[in-house]
Automatic annotation (TrEMBL):
<dbReference type="InterPro" id="IPR020094">
    <property type="entry name" value="TruA/RsuA/RluB/E/F_N"/>
</dbReference>
<dbReference type="GO" id="GO:0120159">
    <property type="term" value="F:rRNA pseudouridine synthase activity"/>
</dbReference>
<dbReference type="GO" id="GO:0003723">
    <property type="term" value="F:RNA binding"/>
</dbReference>
<dbReference type="InterPro" id="IPR002942">
    <property type="entry name" value="S4_RNA-bd"/>
</dbReference>
<dbReference type="InterPro" id="IPR000748">
    <property type="entry name" value="PsdUridine_synth_RsuA/RluB/E/F"/>
</dbReference>
<dbReference type="GO" id="GO:0000455">
    <property type="term" value="P:enzyme-directed rRNA pseudouridine synthesis"/>
</dbReference>
<feature type="domain" description="RNA-binding S4">
    <location>
        <begin position="6"/>
        <end position="65"/>
    </location>
</feature>
<protein>
    <recommendedName>
        <fullName>Pseudouridine synthase</fullName>
        <ecNumber>5.4.99.-</ecNumber>
    </recommendedName>
</protein>
<dbReference type="InterPro" id="IPR018496">
    <property type="entry name" value="PsdUridine_synth_RsuA/RluB_CS"/>
</dbReference>
<keyword id="KW-0694">RNA-binding</keyword>
<keyword id="KW-0413">Isomerase</keyword>
<dbReference type="InterPro" id="IPR050343">
    <property type="entry name" value="RsuA_PseudoU_synthase"/>
</dbReference>
<dbReference type="InterPro" id="IPR042092">
    <property type="entry name" value="PsdUridine_s_RsuA/RluB/E/F_cat"/>
</dbReference>
<dbReference type="Pfam" id="PF00849">
    <property type="entry name" value="PseudoU_synth_2"/>
</dbReference>
<comment type="similarity">
    <text>Belongs to the pseudouridine synthase RsuA family.</text>
</comment>
<dbReference type="InterPro" id="IPR006145">
    <property type="entry name" value="PsdUridine_synth_RsuA/RluA"/>
</dbReference>
<dbReference type="InterPro" id="IPR036986">
    <property type="entry name" value="S4_RNA-bd_sf"/>
</dbReference>
């Protein structure tokens, strides 16, 4: 671990957080912290020694970054700690690094979840302007009506919020496949409830190009370099196709 210091905006630029001008503006706005203290222009940090945060996300150097894929079981909370003492996704990842879940899955939901200490990647995967698709299998409490796909694609209004699915397909009498490109609070459960159905089981089976049907529940593994490369390409392609889209990053809580 090198103790040679660099200017904080240099470290952030190397981590892919933005251009020098953007980062210096962010520092002036108080969005950057070094070891818990608000950073100043020209401040220096020691990569691998000092803790640097940008918009609340810890920034790791390239050598420190870790990428994990977890098959989250039902009943596990998508957080690092839980005040109620429930098991968390962080407890299922075999690392001492500060990795965080990218978005979240509801405590009763299951399936694929990325954990990483790569702040820029976390931003890209959770901000709606990048439109990275996530695919879910959803079991409902009664036979799927024919109108379901059309209604969810056109959008349903719930509590003043218009919720849409990117695509919907019927897999079985009570099983549907839903793809989302936005991550709003409990989105699938709220959409399905708005059309008179109830979710009995919900499993995320894909994040962008990432799938792993053989990963057992409760098990996490490191992403392979080729998987990470494909994920980055998918983020870039989704961003280009959705150029000009706006929105507020959602919780990605299905």
């Amino acid at each position: 671990m090198s103790a040679e210091s660099v200017k904080v905006h240099v470290l952030l630029a190397r981590a892919g957080c933005g251009s020098r001008r953007v980062l210096e503006d962010a520092i002036r706005d108080g969005r950057v912290r070094i070891n818990g203290e608000v950073a100043t222009i020209g401040a220096r940090v020691r990569p691998g020694v000092d803790r640097v945060e940008f918009d609340g996300l810890e920034i790791a150097t390239e050598e420190q970054r870790e990428y994990w894929l977890l098959n989250k079981p039902r009943g596990v909370v998508s957080s690092v700690v839980d005040p109620e003492g429930r098991p968390t996704v962080r407890s299922l990842v075999a690392t001492t690094s500060r990795v965080y879940p990218v978005g979240r899955l509801d405590v009763d939901s299951e399936g694929l979840l990325i954990l990483t200490n790569d702040g820029p990647l976390t931003y890209q995967l959770t901000h709606p302007r990048f439109h990275v698709p996530k695919e879910y299998l959803v079991w409902v409490d009664r036979p799927v009506p024919r109108r379901l796909g059309r209604e969810l694609r056109e959008g349903v209004e719930v509590d003043g919020e218009l919720l849409r699915a990117s695509s919907v397909g019927t897999v079985g009498p009570r099983l549907v496949r839903i793809v989302l490109t936005e991550g709003r609070n409990r989105q699938i459960r709220r959409m399905v409830g708005a059309v008179g159905l109830s979710v009995e089981r919900l499993v995320r089976v894909r994040i962008g190009p990432l799938v792993d049907p053989h990963l057992p529940p409760g098990v996490a593994r490191r992403l392979e370099p080729r998987e990470l490369a494909r994920l980055r390409r998918a983020i870039g392609a989704a961003s280009l196709s959705a150029h000009g889209a706006t929105g507020v990053a959602g919780s990605d809580d299905a």
